[in-house]
Amino acid sequence: MNKIFEIPLYPYTRSPDQDAQTPVRRKVVVVGAGPIGLAAAIDLAQQGIEAIVLDDNDKVSFGSRAICFAKRPLEILDRLGCGQEMVDKGVVWNLGKVFFGDRKVYEFNLLPEEGHRRPAFINLQQYYFEEYLVKRARALEAEGAPIELRGQNKVLDVTDKGDHTVLRISTPDGDYTLEADWLIACDGAGSPIRAMMGLDFVGRVFEDNFLIADVVMDADFPTERWFWFDPPFNKGQSALLHKQPDGVWRIDLQLGWDIDKEKEKKPENVIPRLRAMLGEDVTFDLEWVSIYTFQCRRMEKFRHNRVIFAGDSAHQVSPFGARGANSGLQDTDNLMWKLGLVIGGTAPETLLDSYDTERIHGADENILNSSRSTDFITPKSETSRIFRDAVLDLSEQYEFARPLVNSGRLSVPCTYDGSPLNTPDALPGGPARTRPGAPCPDAPLDNGYLLGDLGCRFTLLTVDADAPDTIDEAGITVPRLALSAADDATGALAARYLGDAKSAIYLVRPDQHVAARWDTYDETATRAAIRRATGQE
């Protein structure tokens, strides 16, 4: 057993807030010290904004849980200060194989295009992810940043007071009351905060159960994603095998709907299933076992006055496609720069409405893809099963059928088409992938990579175009990052940011999404775009 599960990383200590005569008002309280809550607090602390993290636990999550992290979240984690640790520890993979019965029908390669700092995907247990985030939070705290982790602080009640919320909190030393200007609920799929406020999800619950097992073994399986439809060791169901660090392998086995979950989790029932899959000659140890039921649902709204939901507390998807933690990190990346501007008095509170608009769009996109994957993996009718099996048979020999095979469309970042923060596209011939609302793709530069130079602020990116070195508009200072297509001998910068245009100017948001773009500098248009991107127009 990995001892990281047993070590309190943010043990309970009594806070001065518990001894105050009247409830202390805090700027931002984050409920939940999982990956999404920690990322939210770190982002705020890096902006110099007070963030208090409350959790009823004091350790990292038990079991691997989320394991597959895509390039975009790794780029976000670079800005939060722990991307490199993730990549150094994680298992990088790009090859996937799909099996039908006992035969391989095809394989796919996710090898990313050249010119990106980060890989397409890594596999890494969630407990390591949380450990790195806690270490980063502690480092910021040691530097004097306004961040604090409070373990064994369980929220019992939340009251909306209009311009703040009031929380009643249980600790080993008794209850206390805390006030928060803003409350960020990152307390997971079962969100007690959501329940306290009488809110719920809308969407689908899929009638199926999957067994997840973390297995420690010294196996010679390659570093690939293997997915089986109707395998001989799990007839009529599906299975998934993924490699993690430290000789740990993730195995998912579909069990069906009408099962006794507690019985199925017992080692005497799990081990024979794994032996049937791995072979009698493979020696392994069980590290963690769980059973999950699919849900593809979300809240109708993520923002409820001064209480804002992010991650699994706001939306849920099936695990196929790695869209859970990956989308949660994009929630906080979208929200925290906006909240920072509102708290600082630069932007109106209505800017936060765009969080709802943009991230509900992202959640709906994830739910659509996740539902389609689940429907293919677990057909709901005999007709659907016949169609799926025919597609799998055809995919073995015919390339046209392979895009129809859906073992989990893997996570990609959302483009915020139609966002109220976007300025209409004004770059004739510009690449579609960098249109307003799109996340900026990375590109190699002489001194590193583009995304590292963009950082986490508004930036005016110019490619073979003139513009002022700095623009000050509506309380926002926007520095220029001046580049030339000649800065990248590979041609990636030109392909991704110029297309057929000779020059380009991009207004890039702090979350590195494109707010506006033009072929030449227009001061009036640029200033208007800055106001629009900050909810001031």
From TrEMBL:
Ranges where the FAD-binding domain occurs: 27-363
Iron listed as a keyword: no
Cofactor: FAD
A GO term for molecular function: FAD binding
Keywords: FAD, Flavoprotein
InterPro entries in alphabetical order: FAD-bd (IPR002938), FAD/NAD-bd_sf (IPR036188), RIFMO-like (IPR050641)
Pfam families for the chain: FAD_binding_3
NCBIfam families per UniProt: PRK08132.1
Entry-linked PANTHER family: BINDING MONOOXYGENASE, PUTATIVE (JCVI)-RELATED (PTHR43004:SF19), TRK SYSTEM POTASSIUM UPTAKE PROTEIN (PTHR43004)
Protein's recorded name: 3-(3-hydroxy-phenyl)propionate hydroxylase
Native organism: Lutimaribacter pacificus
